[in-house]
Amino acid sequence: MADTNYDVIIIGSGPGGYVAAIRASQLGLKTAIVEREHLGGICLNWGCIPTKALLRSAEIYHYMQHAKDYGLSADNVSFDPAAVVKRSRGVSGQLNGGVGFLMKKNKVDVIWGEAKITKAGEVTVSKVAKKAMEPQHPVPKGVKGEGIYKAKHVIVATGARPRVIPGMEPDGKDIWTYFEAMVPPAMPKSLIVMGSGAIGIEFASFYKTMGADVTVIEIMPTIMPVEDPEISGLAKKQMEKQGLKFLTDAKVSKVVKGSGKVTATVETKDGKTQEISAEKMISAVGVVGNIENIGLEALGVKTDRGCVVIDGYGRTNVPGIYAIGDVAGPPMLAHKAEHEGVICVEKIAGKDVHAMDKSMIPGCTYCNPQVASVGLTEPKAKEAGYKVKVGRFPFMGNGKAIALGEPEGLIKTIFDEKTGQLLGAHMVGAEVTELIQGFVVAMNLETTEEDLMHTVFPHPTLSEMMKESVLDAYGRVLNI
Amino acid sequence: MPINITMPALSPTMEEGNLAKWLVKEGDQVSAGDVIAEIETDKATMEVEAVDEGTVGKILIPAGTAGVKVNALIAVLLEDGEDASAIGSAGSAPAPAAAPAEAKPAPASEAPAPAAPAAAPAPATPKTADGGRVFSSPLARRLAQQNGLDLKAISGTGPHGRVVKRDIEAALSAGTGKAAPAASAAPAAAAAAPAMATGPSTDQVLKLFEEGSYELVPHDGMRKTIARRLVESKQTIPHFYVSVDCELDALLALRGQINGSAPKDKDGNPLYKVSVNDMTIKALALALRDVPNANVSWTDDAMVKHKHADVGVAVSIPGGLITPIIRSAELKPLSVISNEMKDYGKRAKDRKLKPEEYQGGTTAVSNMGMMGVKDFAAVVNPPHATILAVGAGEKRAVVKNDELAIATVMTVTLSTDHRCVDGALGAELLAAFKGYIETPMGMLV
Questions:
Q1: What is the residue extent of each domain of chain B?
Q2: Residues with Cβ < 8 Å from B157, sequence gap 6 or more?
Q3: How far apart are the first and last CA of chain B?
């Protein structure tokens, strides 16, 4: 009889779960992780990672189409959708295998099946009931199977799934979620994307670059509604230049499928109604937590609008039961899940750890142009009562950006006038998803404008724009 | 309209507290005055009462949440006829951070904005007394400079004890960490924080023990407060100790008479039962009245001479101790002191004392006699200048008229803050105290 007693059992091996498992193991806790479908969760298999692979193909395709701009020639540029998807699955498969390796290396037991917390401290794992999304990566070797497992601490890290709007249920054929959009059998000629959050806009950008006629419908007044409106406005303008169509303040009131096309009835705020038809539609109207069928109701674990309610350390209202990541509420981001997992496990291990601070979680969207941000937007900062100093620096003033042939974009910084605290940073343009972390570190270390101005940024880089933006906030901008 | 229930401030300086427990759940009916939740501050647990009647529509901050900001939305009450859908945006804030009432972390106050901060010289990196660097964030340094705080006097809670923004905000709200002079005369609980010499870090301590050979019990608010205040006291107050033996026989006899003649209520229970400790409190209060120069608090600017003897009494409770205060004890009859103490003792154990009941005071008594301790020296609890440590009353051989005799004797040790109560003054106070103990009739008149 194998040992079935653990210090910690984690349900779900997404970025939150598997990182929590590694940290738990590092802290000397006997740890197991339960997974029913794919190590690495949505992020690695159907989310962050495979979309980045798709977008990379689109990006290179885009460059090849514009080879002339760089003095190069590339004739008859084309692509093979199957090969593009295959590469994306390959990237995902490699990382999926990597998580399996990490579990083994860290002596974390992997239990394969559906988990249910049958009572406090007890997790019953049964046969997988859910049909796996195809193509599924192979189930790792040496996993434990069905049975009853015990643990003092159970961490729910079951993630989230696409939100479904009644009457517009994705059918996987005409109306897609990110699952189907990730593995298109062929590139659609036209596409409606409902929702302009990170998922919607990234697919819109991908399919547009690959040649589809794409219309994005957003219910809020601006696309990417969580972003600073000035930034999302610039992103929208650039994408419109590429031929993407946007309907904002617009609500899809009806969807009709038939004869190889989807027709959406769209009501705009001005009261007008229009019909838009396309070959496919992607529903990207957010995600909801996977809180069902894991025993939470019976144990009285408190949930709120589809998510488990936790404190700053991942603790639910029921002792011994924790939740992290998407299932524990927004922002539903892999890096937030990872950090929550680490905090949760360190607290369990009795470490002196600070509670989760959600005010400094960066967000990145990999559309073309990229968008990245951290902290308060300008309107939110003002709403919070700050008197702000705002700095802006356009890509046009940066040598590296010009050399790259990427002169469109903006870096915006927001400071508290009174203290010089960096309240937020917002960017749109090439490679900004790799730049934002500089400001995230700055915010976490509580730097003021002064320290940023005293920091030497390397030349020639896009990062110089970060400093210039800071200088601009204080009237000292140099290169514009 | 749904009614918002917000985190109450239990004291004027309270900035945040822990939501310890909900006594109602969503859907429960409550009437005004019903206790709906318990809030825990560093030393006390307080009950939150409903102000209106209605149905608990939504609990936004789960029980056990630490660091809930004052005025943060914690729950929403629905009035008659409203259902949960009426909560609307009011109830859309599960995380304390999103509560509207505290959405102004640093309201751009009326203070003039610093002129061209970029041109202002950077605050010099502060050094500790022994020349070591005080690690602090740039923002913390600027906030300290803007608010006239001394970083050396602020203990950091950031990584490796780094002083960060929240530490400055905590110091500002507690009124601690002031740079130069400024310690206010008010006997607030929070006296000027000292320059802390840092002890060994958690890691340094744990390294000395084999892993698995111990268990880590995280500190609660009370433990942290005790640690902070006692380190503060021992680091800033030059302690001086004076001991004296007091004969108790007369006092015990008087106590017997007092209790024997106590009037009874309708159930036949005596209305008071005076203890030796109650009489000790009274004696110390009267001694301070007689020696007013010892009834003082130290501030850097002036001697705070108190007009009444407010005697704090250390009460040991599970997980720590707390010092409720008998105000103007020199004016109160023993029966009143006795009944106040009984009430304090009971509520202290439940951590239900209100901040105004344990903050301040002009002196304190710590009695370990009941535990058989012969004598000990207590740590002065600022803003007090004195504390009396009381040992057990025991029969001892004493010399009277050159002959051995038996007497019940109690040893007491007075710890004084030598900055304001010198040795001779302490001795004078102790002599007055001894007088009341040994001639206890004086306490009754």
A1: 3-110, 122-199, 238-443
A2: B164, B166, B167
A3: 60
Can you give the pTM of this predicted structure? 0.61
φ, ψ dihedrals at A396, nearest 5°: -60, -25
Helix A81-105 / helix A48-65 crossing angle, nearest 10 deg: 140
- Please state which CATH number belongs to domain B238-443: 3.30.559.10
Tell me how crowded residue B302 is: count the other CB atoms within 10 A of its CB: 11
Written as six digits, the tokens of A347 are 């607290």
Q: Which residues of B touch A (CB under 8 A)?
A: 62-67, 94-95, 97, 103-109, 111, 113-114, 117-118, 122, 137-140, 142-143, 146, 164-165, 202, 211-212, 215-218
**Cβ–Cβ under 8 Å, residues A333 and A440:** no
User: Which stretch of DSSP H or E encloses residue A147?
Assistant: strand A147-156
A311–B111 C-beta distance less than 8 A: no
Q: Quick one: CATH architecture of B3-110?
A: Beta Barrel (2.40)
Measured in degrees and rounded to the nearest 5, phi and psi for residue A148 equal -105, 125
Q: Quick one: which of A65, A51, A44, A57 has its CA closest to A84?
A: A57
Contact yes or no for A386 and B137 at CB 8 A:
no
Sheet holding B73-78, edge to edge: B3-6, B73-78, B54-59, B29-30
**Mind listing the pLDDT tens digit for each residue in B12-39?**
667 778 888 888 888 888 887 788 888 8
Measured at the alpha carbon of residue B417, what is the angle toward residues B413 and B420, in degrees to the nearest 5?
A: 125
Separation between Cα atoms, residue B168 and residue B179, nearest integer Å: 12
Spell out the residues 6+ positions from residue A359 whose beta carbon is closer than 8 angstroms to its own. Answer: A375, A376, B97
Q: Which residues of B touch A312 (CB under 8 A)?
A: 65-67
Tokens of B256: 């017997």
Using CA atoms, how far apart are residues B139 and B132, in angstroms rounded to an integer? 20
Architecture per CATH, domain B122-199, reads as Irregular (4.10)
Look at B436 and B199; give whichever has higher pLDDT: B436
Are the Cβ atoms of B142 and A317 closer than 8 angstroms?
A: no
ipTM (interface pTM): 0.74
**Residue A364: which residues within 8 A CB-CB, separation 6 or more?**
A198, A370, A371, A372, A433, A436
Which chain A residue is nearest to residue B217, measuring alpha carbons?
A: A350
